[in-house]
Amino acid sequence: MTVKRPQSILAKEWWDYTTLDEKILHDAAQLTEKDLVALTRPGFTVVLYDTLESFYMNEALEYLTAWTQATPSRPAGICGPIGPTEQLPLVAELVNALNLSLRHCHFWGMDEWFLEGREVPRTHPLSFAKADMELCFDRIRPDLRMPAENIHFPKAGQLETYTASFSEVRCAVMQGGQGEVKHWAFNDPFRREGKYVDTPPSPEEYRKLSARIVDLHPITLAQNARTSGEGYVVGIPRQALTVGPVETWKAEKVSIWHAGTHDNPFGMRLTAFMISKRLVDTSVPMSLLADHPNVQFNYYRPALKAVQVEMH
Q1: How confident is the model at residue 2 (pLDDT cuts 50, 70, 90)?
Q2: Do the Cβ atoms of 198 and 230 come closer than 8 Å?
Q3: Residue 246's CB: how many other CB atoms inside 10 A?
Q4: What angle do CA 135, 246, 239 make, to 5 degrees?
Q5: What stretch of H or E contains 5?
Q6: CA neighbours within 13 Å on the CB side: how many for 155?
Q7: CA distance 12 to 29
Q8: What's the pLDDT score for residue 3?
Q9: Which residues lie across from 300 on neighbouring strands?
Q10: How does strand 111-115 pair with strand 239-242?
Q11: Closest by CA position to 174, among listed 155, 152, 156
Q12: Domain range list for the chain
């Protein structure tokens, strides 16, 4: 007999992590810092950093590690997030200081807001492309910059070209953060409707998703209102363009950076627990990375705290 999945505590018309078996949630909440490190297994690594300076510098160095592998015959690149962004100015400083030519290097922006039938223009205050350019690429010396055609942002009507670029150029690493809905990029859980009323999509079905336009979970809207709009949720677009699992599995490594800003101590434990134990469920999209051959979770140690229910 099939056990009926519980309704979401947070958004009843959607799937999310509150529809999981409570034992998974309980076990993840109990993880100590030592337990978290012990989740490391072949294909999944947990790394802790004691300072934010070290955390963001190592995130920036992943850009250089990817770009220094690029050659004229085999260009290479990195797919990067907006959130976190603190690494971006450091990337530009390192490239300039090391006189690193980016001629054969590539960059993929992993997502962008979608509004009124198109990606938001770079004049929009929330534009991810605007943030990437202003915080990083415009700060690199002109003689070192990568060609404009080597910078790939998802655009409405051009998603097939964006997807194809991951087959044409080696993606050495895909970076990401983790949102409160447990996504990377904007790979959010599905609505609980149609054929997904009783069960969310299977992992096999979700894995077939490539770059696309997505409807955003209410948790994602609330999170971005908190981090980017001082809580003004009506100013956050309800759709986005996002890199999908298809492109993600073409990246040789997936590196997720947890500074404690975009998700909480419980959420940062839950996804590591599910990936380590291979508990794959599309109500927690990040759990699909359990099947990727090379995933690393990077934590700012003080952000882990402890998961306790108490008055603050």
Answers
A1: low
A2: no
A3: 16
A4: 55
A5: none
A6: 9
A7: 23
A8: 72
A9: 49
A10: antiparallel
A11: 152
A12: 17-304
For residues 66 and 43, give the distance between their C-alpha atoms in angstroms, rounded to a whole number: 19
Q: Report the predicted TM-score, pTM, of the whole model to 2 decimal places.
A: 0.97
Q: Which residues, 6+ apart, have CB-to-CB distance to 186 below 8 Å?
A: 111, 214, 216, 220, 240, 241, 242
- Name the nearest CA neighbour of 235 among 110, 125, 155, 311: 125
**Gap between the Cα atoms of 219 and 11, Å rounded:** 8
Tokens of 91: 């990337």
Q: Which two tokens stand for residue 267?
A: 């959420």
Q: Please, which residues have CB within 8 angstroms of residue 217's CB and are 6 or more apart in sequence?
A: 11, 14, 16, 181, 183, 188, 189
Exposed (0-12), middle (13-18) or buried (19+): which is 295, by Cβ within 10 Å? buried
What is the CATH architecture of 17-304? 3-Layer(aba) Sandwich (3.40)
Q: Are 251 and 171 in contact (CB under 8 A)?
A: yes
Whole-angstrom distance, CA of residue 87 vs CA of residue 177: 12
Stretch (H or E) spanning 93? helix 87-97
Q: How far apart are CA 15 and CA 2, in angstroms?
A: 17
Among 152, 167, 183, which Cα is nearest to 254's? Answer: 183
Q: In what order do the strands lie in the sheet with 111-115?
A: 118-119, 111-115, 239-242, 212-215
In the DSSP assignment, the letter for residue 147 is: P
Residue with tokens 């963001």: 56
What are the structure tokens assigned to 177, written together? 């953060």
Q: What are phi and psi of 298, to 5 degrees?
A: -115, 125
Q: Which of 137, 167, 143, 176 is nearest to 256 (CA)?
A: 176
197-217 burial: b if 16+ Cβ within 10 Å, else e: eebbbebeebbebbbbebebb
What confidence tens digit (pLDDT) does each residue in 197-212 have? 999 999 999 999 999 9
Residue type, 278: R
**What's the pLDDT tens digit per position in 233-264?**
999 999 999 999 999 999 999 999 999 999 99
